[in-house]
Prior knowledge:
The protein is mainly alpha-helical. The chain folds into 2 domains: about 1-35; about 45-110, no CATH class. The chain is built from 6 helices and no strands.
Amino acid sequence: MSYHFNNRRLLHNYYKLRVPLLLIMSLLFFSQGAHASPPHIIDIRSKAPQCRVYSKPALHEALDKICYVCHEMFSHIRPNLRSECRSKCFRNEHFRGCVSVFAPGLSEGLFSKGYGGNHRAG
């Protein structure tokens, strides 16, 4: 008798959970399903072929990380700081300002050695 009672309770619990689970699954399916666009892939190198940073993935990742962290710190002041920092192949006042936040005095030495591309700092 207790076996039958336990099965009945399990079956009742299953039916109680079935409706919310179906609702959650359908919301997940329809939120990503038919109207989802394919992933947007951008080839960064095609935008700035003269920029040597893009041909060196480790350097590009490091410079981009500087811009990302700087943007996270100062986005309340400059909402477009990440794109401004990355402009002109990382050779601009925004990037130099970000570098000086993390390593004061390094930004002048960094650009005097010619890292970052063919543009002149200025």
